[in-house]
Design goal:
Elements (H helix, E strand, L loop, with lengths): L8 H12 L8 E5 L5 H4 L2 E7 L17 E7 L2 E7 L10 H4 L1 H9 L3 E10 L9 E9 H4 L26 H14 L5 E8 L8 H9 L4 E3 L3 H9 L3 E11 L12 H25 L4
Bound molecules: 6-chloroguanine.
Length: about 290
């Protein structure tokens, strides 16, 4: 069994209070920027930013293409907090550390979480540069017992056995398609199932074929753990994948998955993704 690195409710509260004491922003929306999509955070007005290393209890991100800052500010007038750089299983973090920011979001007052990632396309109709709105996920590490909610449950966050059949808010999916259509993005917007693996090695051909048969449209190394913890504590969730490369599905192919291609496609679509997300944020309704 993996060692549990748990943060108590009080530790999470202390981190949230430390942040709240240093600024006036009270964020309603929490955004997580995926590989190459950190530009979203730069869009915030009246920024107050914290390096992860300065935030009590926060892990630090180690990947090229991820900055490692928590940025507060307003996006089209709406108070937001943005993770510029996230934590991944492949960095060696225990899964409870990867998802700590979701509980901090909750305690800061966040109601809606928007997660972005870079992913490989398994669906043969997808093209590089497509944006997939998540309607569901396959949690492969979870099958092996690596679930961020494993261990004692604190009811102050949520229930022992949270429902996941409604993880991806349907109204927010619709909003994404509406906003996308208005921006002229319909040609590259898709809806599908995201499969998370531990990484850091990319999939073999046989693994891609298996995941495709199991119903996955895209494969990546993030997001799902955060979704589970965000849903557990009652935040609404929206997630999208930028399809940065086509996962290799046949033995004749000369294609090879690589991180440079992932970052390059990110640059290609970054501006449009920033517009999509910021226009969505403007139109999300809050209590
Ligand atoms: Cl092809 N696989 C995984 N696991 N993650 C990715 C990817 C592929 N492309 C971008 N991220």
């Amino acid at each position: 069994l993996l060692p549990l690195h748990r943060y108590s409710y009080e530790e999470c509260r202390a981190t949230a209070d430390w942040l709240l004491a240093q600024m006036n922003v009270r964020p309603l929306v929490g955004i997580v920027c995926g590989s190459g999509l950190g530009g979203l955070a730069e869009m915030l007005k009246d920024q107050v930013a914290f390096n992860y290393k300065d935030i009590p209890n926060f892990p630090q991100s180690t990947v090229h293409g991820h900055a490692g800052r928590l940025v507060f500010g307003t996006l089209k007038g709406k108070p937001c907090v943005c993770m510029q750089g996230r934590f991944h299983l492949y960095e060696g973090y225990p899964i409870q550390k990867i998802t700590l920011p979701m509980r901090i979001f909750k305690l800061l007052g966040v109601e809606t979480v928007i997660l972005t990632n870079a992913a490989g396309g398994l669906n043969q109709d997808y093209r590089v540069g497509d944006v997939m709105i998540l309607k569901d996920h396959l949690n492969m590490p979870g099958f092996a017992g690596n679930n961020p909610l494993a261990g004692p449950n604190d009811e102050r966050f949520g229930v022992r056995f949270p429902c996941m059949s409604d993880a991806y808010d349907r109204d927010l999916q619709q909003l994404a398609f509406d906003v996308g259509a208005e921006l002229g993005y319909s040609d590259f917007l898709r809806k599908g199932v995201y499969c998370v693996l531990g990484g850091p090695s990319f999939e073999t051909i046989a693994e891609c074929r298996m995941l495709h048969k199991l119903g996955a449209d895209a494969v990546g190394m993030s997001t799902v753990h955060e979704v589970i913890v965000a849903r557990h504590c009652g935040m609404r969730v929206f997630a999208l994948s930028l399809i940065t490369n086509q996962a290799v599905m046949d033995y004749e192919s000369e294609e090879k998955a690589n991180h440079e291609e992932v970052l390059e496609t990110g640059r290609l679509r970054a501006e449009q993704l920033e517009r999509l997300v910021s226009n969505m944020v403007m139109r999300i309704e809050h209590n």
